[in-house]
């Protein structure tokens, strides 16, 4: 180390660091998917009409949220195997999904909750008046209204998790950071491979955040009269003969 | 002509038929406020009932309990001979579970003050959702019936519109069509015109009148439209301080009543 940045090293390290890209991206999707699903688990338990269960679950969520993901990662990887009875040894990749996924699922559960609470109470009442089953009420009425407005927020968490996933290199998951690290150790050159890691994160995160901003606008205006009007024009449904004068300005 | 029809309709409600709904000493409190202090009420098949009374007298609460949106504090409501809020288990009456409640309330429909249409569905989908998913009816048949119903309420040309594209009056007419395609035996209306601009009230009342004259379901209307109530109701209930203070034909309650509270209510009402 200590010498200046050299393009030669940069291009030498590039293919090696890129070998880890699949793992990093794959782990991000896996953690995110797990967090999306597990978020519903929190919601489910918190809606059980039993004060004790609700307060236990709330407390557990708070506990998970206020502990660093790194500690949780170590716990799952090193401590879980020695816990009596339930102790299991898991692959590093699986450990990372569990630890990072569960950590962020507590945030995602909160996002779901805000989405569900934003659904007008008249919608619940209409579902009762039309005699929907509990299952259909959630599936067809509540969630289709509760989730779309939260998509931008969920997207933000996707990016946050993408940036959190390199933590897993510490327990031996060979993503781009681990690859850069081992390249550095072998060749005594850390600057170039770590620069590559930085560039990769920038190249993937930045466009994603722009995409999310666009999504946000789209979700907020989903049922906006003018947006529907434009859509109708494109599809040119004969029924949609709203006049220009019907526009809301 | 509409008067003739109304008269016929009124005669067709035979007092000898078994009531389809019976309130048995139903009481309701919210915390310390006793909103309903013992309601006994019978609704016969096809009967049109208007519920009037001062604000806060419990009109909305009465019909919300029948729709199972609010649970009575004591007493129960019998629908089609079955308890609504209680069910039999091992020979005892216990609190009804979701399955029992869904079974019993299947014949009841409701139209709300604020429409409560599903914003993520077109108005045709709004009408089709419950018959298909709740009653498991044939999709094509439901579609045809829904289109007919939307045509009936004057929205046949807007089937693919979303609720956000409609005026308040149009939304309320969709809400009625949505309730009607479920073919309820009892329809509840909670001040369905009071959230509307005055110029849109008429079109909604016309639809209700049409239903009252041509369909044979029972209707309970909570309303401030006195003239309208007088016109279509077989029976008018005057609710005051949590009890049914007066009931009878529209003429008996709205014109001839000697009840002081009714008179002062109507007087205040006419001034407003
Ligand atoms: N969910 C609730 N929690 C607490 N109090 C309630 C609730 N719903 C109704 N109330 C109270 O019960 C009383 C009766 O309410 P209700 O809505 O049935 O009256 P209403 O006759 O329909 O009045 P309005 O003409 O204003 O609609 C009111 O005093 C109201 O404040
Ligand atoms: Mg009311």
Automatic annotation (TrEMBL), chain A:
Any one Gene Ontology BP term: amino acid transport
PANTHER family documented for this protein: L-CYSTINE TRANSPORT SYSTEM PERMEASE PROTEIN TCYL, MEMBRANE COMPONENT OF AMINO ACID ABC TRANSPORTER
Protein name: Ectoine/hydroxyectoine ABC transporter permease subunit EhuD
SUPFAM superfamilies: MetI-like
Gene Ontology MF, one: transmembrane transporter activity
Principal subcellular localisation of the protein: membrane
Transmembrane segments: 20-45, 85-104, 165-184, 190-212
Any one GO CC term of the record: ATP-binding cassette (ABC) transporter complex
InterPro entries: AA_ABC_transptr_permease_3TM, ArtM/GltK/GlnP/TcyL/YhdX-like, Ectoine_EhuD, MetI-like, MetI-like_sf
Signal sequence, start to end: none
Protein's organism: Ureibacillus endophyticus
Entry keyword set: Amino-acid transport, Cell membrane, Membrane, Transmembrane, Transmembrane helix, Transport
Protein's UniProt keywords contain Glycoprotein: no
Gene: ehuD
All copies of domain ABC transmembrane type-1, residue ranges: 21-212
Family: Belongs to the binding-protein-dependent transport system permease family.
From TrEMBL, chain B:
GO cellular component: plasma membrane
Gene Ontology molecular functions: ABC-type amino acid transporter activity; ATP binding; ATP hydrolysis activity
Protein's cellular compartments: Cell membrane
SUPFAM superfamilies: P-loop containing nucleoside triphosphate hydrolases (SSF52540)
Protein's membrane topology: Peripheral membrane protein
Pfam families listed in its UniProt record: ABC_tran
Domain ABC transporter: 21-266
Keywords carried by this UniProt record: Amino-acid transport, ATP-binding, Cell membrane, Membrane, Nucleotide-binding, Transport
CDD domains in alphabetical order: ABC_HisP_GlnQ (cd03262)
NCBIfam families found in the cross-reference section: ectoine_ehuA (TIGR03005)
Family: Belongs to the ABC transporter superfamily.
PANTHER family (UniProt xref): AMINO ACID IMPORT ATP-BINDING PROTEIN, GLUTAMATE_ASPARTATE IMPORT ATP-BINDING PROTEIN GLTL
Protein name: Ectoine/hydroxyectoine ABC transporter ATP-binding protein EhuA
């Amino acid at each position: 180390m200590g010498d200046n940045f050299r393009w030669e090293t940069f291009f030498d390290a590039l293919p090696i660091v890129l070998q880890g890209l699949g793992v990093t991206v794959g782990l991000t999707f896996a953690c995110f998917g797990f967090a999306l699903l597990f978020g519903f688990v929190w919601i489910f338990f918190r809606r059980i009409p039993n004060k004790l269960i609700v307060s236990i679950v709330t407390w557990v969520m708070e506990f998970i949220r206020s502990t660093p993901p790194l500690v949780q990662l170590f716990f799952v990887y090193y401590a879980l195997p020695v816990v009596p009875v339930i102790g299991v040894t898991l692959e590093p990749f699986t450990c990372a999904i569990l630890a990072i996924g569960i950590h962020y699922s507590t945030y995602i559960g909160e996002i779901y909750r805000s989405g569900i609470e934003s659904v007008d109470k008249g919608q619940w009442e209409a579902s009762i008046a039309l005699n929907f089953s509990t299952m259909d009420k959630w599936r067809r009425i509540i969630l289709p209204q509760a989730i779309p407005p939260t998509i931008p927020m969920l997207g933000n968490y996707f990016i946050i998790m993408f940036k959190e996933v390199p933590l897993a290199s510490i327990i031996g998951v060979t993503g781009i950071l681990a690859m850069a690290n081992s390249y550095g150790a072998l060749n005594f050159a850390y600057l170039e491979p770590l620069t590559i890691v930085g560039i990769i994160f920038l190249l993937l995160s930045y466009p994603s955040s722009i995409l999310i901003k666009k999504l946000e606008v789209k979700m907020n205006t989903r049922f906006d009269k003018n947006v529907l009007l434009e859509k109708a024009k494109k599809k040119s449904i004969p029924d949609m003969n709203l006049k220009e004068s019907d526009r809301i300005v | 002509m509409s008067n003739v029809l109304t008269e016929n309709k009124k005669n067709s409600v035979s007092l000898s038929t078994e009531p389809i709904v019976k309130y048995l000493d139903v009481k309701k409190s919210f915390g310390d406020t006793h909103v309903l202090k013992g309601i006994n009420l019978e609704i016969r098949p096809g009967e049109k009932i208007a519920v009037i009374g001062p604000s806060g007298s419990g009109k909305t609460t009465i019909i919300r309990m029948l729709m199972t949106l609010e649970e009575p504090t004591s007493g129960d409501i019998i629908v089609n001979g079955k308890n609504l809020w209680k069910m039999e288990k091992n020979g005892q009456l216990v609190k009804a579970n979701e399955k029992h409640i869904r079974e019993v309330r299947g014949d009841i429909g409701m139209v709300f003050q604020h429409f409560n249409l599903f914003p993520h569905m077109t108005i045709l989908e709004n009408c089709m959702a419950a018959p298909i998913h709740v009653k498991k009816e044939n999709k094509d048949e439901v579609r045809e019936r829904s289109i007919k119903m939307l045509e009936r309420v004057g929205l046949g040309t807007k089937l693919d519109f979303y609720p956000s594209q409609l005026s308040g009056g149009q939304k309320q007419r969709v809400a009625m069509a949505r309730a009607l395609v479920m073919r309820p035996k009892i329809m509840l209306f909670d001040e369905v015109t009071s959230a509307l601009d005055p110029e849109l009230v008429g079109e909604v009342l016309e639809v209700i009148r049409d239903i009252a004259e041509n369909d044979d379901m029972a209707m309970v209307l909570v309303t401030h439209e006195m003239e309208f109530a007088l016109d279509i109701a077989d029976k008018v209930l005057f609710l005051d301080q949590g009890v049914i203070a007066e009931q009878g034909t529209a003429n008996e309650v709205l014109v001839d009543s000697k009840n002081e509270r009714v008179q002062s209510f109507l007087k205040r009402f006419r001034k407003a």
